[in-house]
Every structure is written in C-alpha cells, then in structure tokens.
Amino acid sequence: MHxxxxxxxxxxxxxxxxxxxxxxxxxxxxxxxLFFGGLFLTYTINxxxxxxxxxxxxxxxxxxxxxxxxxxxxxxxxxxxxxxxxAQTGRKKLxxxxxxxxxxxxxxxxxxxxxxxxQKFDHHLIPGHSFDITYCSNNPSxxxxxxKALDDEKKEIEEGIQAEKxxxxxxxxxxxxxxxxxxxxxxxxxxxxxxxHALHMIIGAGLLVWLILEARKGRFDADYNTxxxxxxxxxxxxxxxxxxxxPLLYLINRHLA
Amino acid sequence: MAEHSEHIVPPKxxxxxxxxxxxxxxxxxxxxxVDLGRLNIVVALGIATIKMTLVILFFMHGxxxxxxxxxxxxxxxxxxxxxxxxxxxxxxxxxxxxxxxxLNQPSSSxxxxx
Lengths: 257, 114
Prior knowledge:
heterodimer; A: Four Helix Bundle (Hemerythrin (Met), subunit A); 9 helices; about 0% strand; B: about 65% helix
C-alpha cells in the first residue's frame, strides 16, 4: 500500500508521481468515454429510426424526478471538488465531512432512481411480456393520470399509432404493435443506459466509503491526496454522463407533450 | 516534503461553477418546454456540452493539468468524434438501408405482446 507522501523509485519527484497518477486516471476515463459513447451512438441511431415511439417513451418519464436527480448529482460533484480542496489545503478534518456529503447526495440520487424504476414497473413499462405502452391511458387511476395530462397522453398515443402504420390503410392494431415494440426499444435503452450509469454510481459509492474511512485516519493532506483526487475525477465523469443522459432521455420531445 | 506546484482551485471558483451548472439545468428544462422544432435537440445538447466543459475544466482541474494530461483528454474526445462521426455519416448516406416501412415490420415476436 502506498504510504503518505512516499516516493517510488521510478519517479524523480513527487510531482511527477502525482502527474502520472492523474494521467493514468484520465486514460481510464477515456476508455469510459468510448464505452458510454457506443451506447449514446446506439441511442442516436434508434431515436432517428423511430422518432415517434422514442418521443412518446421519453415523455412518459417523470421530468420532476429527473430534474431533481440532476440537481442532486451536480451538488455531489461540488462537495467532491470541495473535499479535494480540503485535502490540498491540509484541512484534514474537513476531508471526510465533504466526502460523507458526497456519499449522502449520491445515495439520494440512487434512491430517487429506485422510485423511478418502481414507477415504470407499476406502469408496465419494463420491456418484456407485460410491456404495455397504453397501460396508463387505459388505467389512468393506477398511474395517477387525470384531466389534461390524460387527454394529452391519449392523443399522443393515438397519433403514435397512426404514425407507426406502414400504410394509411393498415389497421390500428398493426400500428399499435409497431408502436409498442419500438417503445420497448426506447425503454430497453433507457434501462440499459441509466442502469449502467447507476452501476457506476454504486461503484463510486463503494470507493467513497473506503475513502471516508481512510480520510478519518487523517491520511490525506497537502502532500498526499492522490486517491481523493482520482476518485474525484471518476465521480465527476459519472456526473458528466448524467449531464448528457438527462436531456437525451427526458427532454428532447417535451415540447410536444 | 513535496513541492506544492499543483494548482489549488479556490472554493469561490467551485461555487461559481456550481451556480452555472444549476442555472444551466434550469435553462435546459425550460427550453425543452418551448417548441423550437429541430433546434430543441441542438439547444439541449449545446447546454449539456457547456456544462460538461465547466466540469472538466474546473471540477476535474483540466484547465490546470499537465500538457500531457490535456492531450489525453482531447484525444479521448477526438476518438469519440471519430466513432460518432463516421458511423452517423455511414448511416445517413447509405441508400440500401431498410425503408421505414420495412423497419416497422416486426421481425421478431420476442418483444411483442400477444
């Protein structure tokens, strides 16, 4: 284990050692950029192929929960940055406090995500046999839909059915089958992308727990703070992924809702 | 003892970045509710890109890191641009891709409700 401020033989200075660690972390993050990039690419191509179904799917997400989660995650990036600052300026007591705040905000994010997933489950929006894009418009009380929101959703689905028909003379049933299967594609990508993002958050939370335990021993200060710095880079990267997931999944078709 | 040549970003800048990110989030939600046609996606991705740039430059210290590190960061996005750019160029210029009507034909019953 790397002890506080220790210089390894292959480096000339601690500064060079630190720079190398930062560079290595960024090389890892580049692989992560390309990893998530592939998913964003898949999403873009499918969204382009099935704009109607993807628009309807996106408008079925809860905008308030997504917005709240974005705020929570941005705040957690701030507290993470502040813990790095605390270490760099030798405020050893502050480091664990900011890390605990980061972990708490990260947990709130995951908690809200659980509520969202549960809601989708209740609304029959999990891809598979029981998927039903019309569930909420047919069972408005089960989804808490009423008044204008219900009318809007009914109208949106009706228009979606017409748009998904192969030709105007086709039956509504064939339009619904197409809409249903393409909306499942949207929700598969939604769960795949947010799920992978949540997995990164869970790993980040695990790293934070370790970091908090170490920071409470007073291990991180101005001389040695590489773990705080590098886990901070990872945490900010996960924040960036969400900064793109939020508009792409929740917002693009809101103006039509 | 180490020489402290690393740049320390003051909390004031972190707070300013936090404020900018929060404003950006509110803006992007408000903009999404207005019908801008094809521009909706441009605005959404534009704001997201600005937010990402702020996070990388300040929270991640990109602005103050070594030149080598900056090169790696830029290279990462360059590769991402190759992947996105070339694939989308291919998709948008192929003429033998299945037509919309063919795409709409359910090819597998796996995901289709009975």
